[in-house]
Design a protein that fits this description.
- This protein is of the alpha/beta class.
- The chain has two domains: about 80 residues, Urease, subunit C, domain 1, CATH 2.30.40.10; about 325 residues, Metal-dependent hydrolases (TIM Barrel), CATH 3.20.20.140.
- Helix content is about 30%, strand content about 25%.
- The strands form three sheets. Strands 1, 2, 3, 4, 5, 16, 17, 18 and 19 form a nine-stranded mixed beta sheet that branches. Strands 6-9-10-11-12-13-14-15 form an eight-stranded parallel beta sheet.
- Helix 7 runs parallel beside helix 8.
- The structure holds N-(aminocarbonyl)-beta-alanine (URP) and zinc ion (ZN) (2 copies).
- The site of one zinc ion has 3 residues, from loops.
């Protein structure tokens, strides 16, 4: 059965026009004025609404064994939450730790997602060590359609790589034509600062930020950029949180390093005072890199408007309050992460477009199109004949407040609780099937496909 979206205002990364969109057999087949609906077509009236390409979240954690526990979501819960928030494709980090086998890790993550997601997905493959088997295993994983790596310069001894391993990973990435994403914090500095703070009796969540200050992230970012420059590989900084790191990344871009920049919605919406809330409540907002001084948010919004920041992701990583409690005696044991997969588009629209100065085009580009371009999702992020029919009908007149009651993530708190929200998705399609109808999930948690990608760098 076809779908006809009528009377909407179509917004893409470079266009804004009124048209009807007809979709059949998973793809957009016609775009134009006053299209007729063949018999049996589902007609969605988008009068007064925007029609966006399905949004892409290029950085999420769903299955994640980390800090002695596991992130809470399943692929079903995370994908349903994503769809409610207009996200139709996500890229999950496959994160085996240093003691685990890379290829086994890939198979584990792939198996966990298969047949369990309501929307499409792909993976970044984390390289957490580089031993004699790694190159061959990574070649096999890239041949299976995973065209991006991930390295952690933080989390020493667990996910973190040493410099020789970083160099070897980037050399291989260059040879294979894949891009490498990186968590950029200097692991040694974090370790030393954590020890120092704990020895001074500074144990609460408010000390998480001082244990990894902006200099730690700026050093990590510059460090990664230098390795890219020496190897000629393409790179992508994940969850960049502050002006100092942004300056390092922009400096590298100006030197000709092929480097893309991602920031995540928590860093746009929360400053470090959230993690300083008393009675351990701040633990809800402990993530790495940490929430920063408020002044950094202006740098992020300005950088996004100017196109210095390429994408806005979530770094979705839900740990519930019982799990956060693991760090009651020492902030270093608080599982790092904030759930956000369902909130990203709404918060970016509210505080960027509706109440800020972000254009609709930059909004779509940074939350969808650019991620598709950077990561080779050739069928996604566009509204064009032949593209996948992943579409979001969005009502800009909606006014509400974020509350856990409306949440679909497998967690017991929302960091965005009480935030005002302008606009929301009323209908969302995944490859030509309605997954959200009139704001209610009607999709299928077995429908999501692994999107295989080709190396393009
Ligand atoms: O605090 C965070 N960011 N948790 C998830 C793991 C990571 O570093 O991305
Ligand atoms: Zn990270
Ligand atoms: Zn992450």
């Amino acid at each position: 059965m076809g779908i006809l979206i009528k009377n909407g205002r179509v917004i893409t990364a470079n266009d804004d026009y009124e048209a009807d969109i007809y979709c059949e057999d998973e793809q957009i087949t016609t775009i134009g004025p006053n299209l007729d609906a063949p018999a049996g077509t589902e007609v969605i009236d988008a009068s007064g609404k925007y029609v966006f390409p399905g949004f892409i979240d290029p950085h999420v954690h769903i299955h994640l064994p980390f800090m002695g526990t596991f992130a809470k979501d399943t692929h079903s819960t995370a994908s349903i939450a994503a769809l409610y928030g207009g996200t139709t494709t996500y890229i999950e980090m496959v994160c085996p730790n240093r003691t685990e086998d890379t290829l086994e890790g890939y198979k584990l993550w792939k198996g966990m997602a298969e047949g369990k997601s309501a929307c499409d997905y792909t993976f970044h493959m984390a390289v957490s060590k580089f031993d004699d088997k790694t190159a061959e295993q990574l070649r096999e994983i890239v041949a299976d359609g995973i065209a991006s790596f991930k390295v952690f310069l933080a989390y020493k001894g667990f996910f973190g790589v040493e410099d020789d391993e970083l160099f070897a990973t980037l050399k291989l990435a260059k040879e294979l034509g894949v891009i490498t994403t990186a968590h950029c914090e200097n692991a040694e500095l974090v370790a030393r600062l954590c020890d120092q703070l704990l020895s001074e009796g500074k144990t609460g969540p408010e000390w998480h930020e001082p244990s990894r200050p902006i200099q730690v992230e700026a050093e990590g970012t510059g460090h990664f950029a230098s390795f890219l420059e020496m190897t000629g590989a393409a790179g992508y900084v994940v969850h960049l949180s502050c002006e100092a790191a942004l300056m390092e990344a922009v400096d590298a871009k100006l030197r000709g390093v092929e480097l893309y920049i991602e920031s995540v919605i928590p860093h746009f919406c929360f400053d470090k005072t959230f993690a300083e809330r008393p009675n351990f409540e701040g633990a809800k907002w402990v993530m790495s890199p940490p929430l920063r001084e408020k002044s950094n948010q202006k740098a992020l919004w300005d950088g996004l408007k100017m196109g210095l920041i390429d994408t806005v992701a979530t770094d979705h990583c839900p740990f519930d309050l019982e799990q956060k409690d693991l760090g009651r005696d020492a902030f270093t044991a608080i599982p790092n992460g904030i759930p956000a997969i369902g909130d990203r588009v709404n918060m970016l629209y509210t505080y960027g477009v509706s109440r800020g100065a972000l254009s609709l085009q930059r909004f779509v580009e940074s939350a969808s199109t650019k991620a598709a371009e950077i990561f080779g999702l050739t069928q996604k992020g566009r509204i064009a004949v032949g593209a996948d029919a992943d579409l979001v009908v969005f009502d800009p007149s909606y006014r509400g407040v974020v509350t856990m009651k409306d949440h679909h993530v497998n967690n017991d708190y929302s960091g965005f609780e009480g935030f005002e929200q302008d606009g929301k998705a009323t209908h969302v399609t995944v490859r030509g099937q309605v997954a959200i109808r009139d704001g209610v999930f009607v999709g299928d948690t077995t429908r999501g496909q692994l999107i295989r990608r080709k190396p393009t760098y």
